[in-house]
Design a protein that fits this description.
six-stranded parallel sheet, alpha/beta, 14 helices, two-stranded antiparallel sheet, disordered N terminus, 8 strands
Amino acid sequence: MSLRTPGAGVLMAFVAKAVWASARSLSTTPSTWLSTTPIIRTMDSSDQARNLWRSADAVCFDVDSTVIMDEAIDEMAKYCGKGDAVAALTKEAMKGSMNFREALAMRLNIIKPSVSQIKSFLVNEPARLSPRIKELVEELHKRRIPVYLISGGFRSLIQPIAQELNIPIQNVYANRLKFYYNGEYAGFDEDEPTSRQGGKGEVIKMLKKTHRYNSIILIGDGATDLEACPPADAFIGFGGNVVREEVKARAKWFVTDFKELIDAL
């Protein structure tokens, strides 16, 4: 007697029935059964920034409106009696009608700060540190994380800030003002990377190459900070003094109080 093998259609129907019976044994309805499937969650960009913050090899800060509460060039302009003219030029520069170096040169040519004026300004109008920046830098130093100041401002105004925060002077990257022998303003050093558009990114590239840092975090309030990531591995937007909407919208992590960064370490 020969045995007959069931047709493919019969076999498929049998398997389908068995699968459906198994599903019903787990739940009364197919929709409930599917709801038991594990949900795999992916890490969002904010979580990635926080993880990089906790594992950073080095941290770089912008200075104006980040480490300090004001824009130093605007404050110096007011002190020298040129506040309104510089403010009007700054407003035009924000519209994108000129690049960073052009705006810097034009503002300095209006102020023309002398050595004596800068010394007087530093004594009579010392920079106001942003709340909790000192505690944050101290915490980073405790963890032996190098801290750098990268600014489109001026070394002569930033060095006292670095000293107050116990940041080595060699960790300050900013523009150098030039003076004649009589102390009058003579221009600025155009070889400094921070004097041109994209200069902060150039500094970060150099730090990575020189010190072989794998992970650098940049913290700042402005567009020149935002554009420096990459090469920075993460950018944290800061709005504790002024909120710039483009930075707030594009930053993967945006804070308004340095306490949030202290707590996240």
